[in-house]
Each structure stands twice: as C-alpha cells, then as structure tokens.
Design brief:
Strand order of the largest sheet: 1-2-3
Radius of gyration: 16 Å
Largest sheet: 3 strands, parallel
Number of helices: 3
Order of helices and strands: EHHEHE
Number of domains: 1
Shape: globular
Structural class: alpha/beta
C-alpha cells in the first residue's frame, strides 16, 4: 500500500485564541504576555499530537489572522503588533494583519 503524506495547515484567529486562553486560565488581570500564542509551536504540537492516528502528517503552513491597531489611536499598540508579526514571520508563522 502506498503511504501518502498528509499536509496540515493551521489557521489561528489570534485575538480569540489569546482572549480564550486568558479566560480559560483566569489570567484576565495578569501580565499581557500570559495567553500569547507562538503560532509555529502550536502548529508543530497539533501536527505531532495527530501522528498516532496518521504517521505521515507534516505541517505545511501556519496562518495567523489578527487585527492591527490604528497608529492614530495607539502608536504603541501598532508598534507592538508589528514587532510581534515580524517575530512570527522570522519563525515561519505567516500572518495576515488587518488595519482598522
């Protein structure tokens, strides 16, 4: 029997993942870094967790969708967002930002 590779693509709605983690672990009033997601690591984890079911799976892509703060309303917020997106891109977690 021919073993075919299974390619895994992970799509993350960043704000919902971040806020969901903060709520699930009761971190709403803790440091803002608690609840942040490392997209590539999450993609690798999800791929690895499924190897028992499908040993031929490979992570093909991680896509992160998130809003970007307006520079008019929050220069600091926009700069932080852009730093985070650059960090993800350097680690091969692709990102799509949407300005407001």
């Amino acid at each position: 029997m021919l073993d075919l590779e299974t390619f895994v693509a992970v799509f993350i709605d960043y704000q919902n993942a971040y806020m969901g983690a903060r709520q699930a672990f009761n971190w709403q009033h803790d440091h803002y870094t608690l609840g942040q997601v490392f997209p590539r690591r999450l993609g690798i984890l999800l791929t690895d967790r499924g190897l028992g079911v499908d040993p031929n799976r490979q992570l093909a892509k991680v896509m992160v969708f998130r809003g970007e703060p307006s520079a008019v309303r929050s220069r600091v917020g926009q700069a932080a967002c852009q730093r985070q997106v650059r960090y993800w891109m350097l680690r091969r977690a692709w990102s799509r930002s949407r300005g407001r």
